[in-house]
Specification:
eight-stranded antiparallel beta barrel, 2 domains, 403 residues, mainly beta, 24 strands, 5 helices, single chain
């Protein structure tokens, strides 16, 4: 099974988390075997100004994604490696002065590292572990040979992580992925933590971490760490506000322009979006480099959302989901996050500068549906690709170059 070499945090990132300023010194990808499947997760080695360390874990659980923060501690009643190895799921254990219940027993393996990790976190290293729940706190006991380590941790909000490291809070849930999700783990110099069933849902304005998708691509096997893909710049050519012409049988005037950055699983790219006005004030949206291709143009017209497709419902869509619209069945083909980098012209015709929207693309034959939403509003547009020659013949009478 493949695992993502992409990362939601980059080595070298710095920020204040849980009241302390940390620098991300290292990252590791780990795996475990659960029910004959391999599950993967990521661990980040955070170091504060005094040299203290904590481990931040990013994992997919049964119902979504979660972040957890763990620290080494000295238990009130230490266990030997032999005593730890004798523990079974359901048994009690007293490590912090109150009873905890063992919830998972297993073995983890390090499959990839970058930067500085703790001792024992070399590629290929293996650790035995058990996880225990203590009234909301997660305890991890791990051992290699006779050496035993004890960790205690808790879930932390995505808001906290995004605020600490300056990453977007609004991200796209990749759904069930090759990471698995029945269980994942934590390994310091050999420790592990289980999935806790926390639901990390993509909802409007709330939080799922896009970062790992946009900083890299997924690869199969145990490949080495790769650099993030280069963001594709928008085409240098742009249409002029005020340009007039006929597209798809309708006379339009360009009223605004927006430079939009789009981020998805394949990486980032920029595109031009033009607000158009037609007869009787009818509006349309012309997008150049819709999927990043400099010769691709799509013309979209607004459509009414079907009953029940709220921003929250749109946020729950996953790749390959289908739904009906105006008698056609659309299938979701892509999920994305977009941000307007620059905007000029009619502010109502294109996304506002600095604005962030979440969205998906769905297709039904030659028709493409573009869905984008914020916390309070959802906009749907349906359109088709246009020949580049038709667009240029109609509207490229006053070209402007922006790069």
């Amino acid at each position: 099974m493949s695992y993502p070499s992409a990362s939601p945090l980059r080595v070298g990132s710095a920020g204040t988390l849980d009241g302390k300023h940390y620098t991300v010194r290292g990252r590791a990808v780990l795996c475990t075997e659960v029910d004959q499947e391999t599950d993967y997760w990521q661990e980040f080695n955070l170091v504060d100004g005094a040299g203290g360390t904590v481990t931040l874990v990013f994992e997919e659980e049964e119902n979504g994604w979660a972040w957890k923060l763990f620290k080494l501690f000295d238990p009130s009643c230490p266990l030997s490696a032999a005593e730890a190895a004798a523990k079974r799921v359901g048994q009690g254990v007293d490590l912090i002065g109150r009873s905890a219940r063992v919830t998972l027993v297993g073995r983890s393996r390090v499959v990839q590292t970058e930067g500085e990790m703790s001792e024992g976190m070399a590629r290929g290293s293996v650790a035995d572990y058990f996880n225990a729940d203590a009234a909301g706190e997660q305890l991890v006991v791990s051992w290699t040979g006779s050496e035993v380590e004890f960790y205690r941790g808790r879930k932390i909000s995505v808001q906290s992580v995004s605020a600490a490291f300056g990453l977007s809070r609004a991200v796209l849930d990749p759904g069930r992925s090759s990471w698995g999700g029945a269980s994942s783990g934590f390994q310091g110099s050999g420790s592990f933590m289980e999935s806790s069933g926390v639901k990390f849902v993509v909802i409007v304005g709330a939080v799922l971490f896009f970062g790992w998708m946009f900083h890299g691509v997924w690869r199969g096997g145990e490949s080495s760490t790769t650099s993030p893909p280069v963001k594709l710049a928008a085409p240098s050519f742009r249409l002029a506000n005020g340009a007039r012409g006929t597209l798809a049988g309708t006379d339009y005037t360009v009223t605004s322009h927006a430079l939009v950055e789009v981020a998805g699983i394949g990486g980032k790219f920029e595109r031009h979006e033009y607000g158009l006005v037609g007869p009787n004030g009818a509006t349309a949206l012309l997008i150049h480099a819709f999927d990043g291709d400099a010769h691709d143009w799509h013309l979209f017209r607004p459509v009414t959302s079907p009953d029940g497709l709220t921003p929250l419902a749109a946020a729950s869509k996953r790749a390959s989901d289908s739904f009906a619209l105006d008698g056609a069945t659309f299938k979701v083909s892509g999920l994305f996050l977009c941000q307007t980098l620059a905007q000029d012209g009619d502010p109502a015709a294109t996304p506002a500068q600095g604005g962030v929207l979440y969205g998906f693309v769905a297709r039904a034959g030659a028709d493409t549906l573009l869905a984008r939403w914020s916390e309070s509003a959802l906009a749907l547009r349906v359109g088709r690709a246009l020949p580049e020659a038709e667009v240029l013949a109609a509207l490229a009478r006053k070209p402007e170059f922006v790069r």
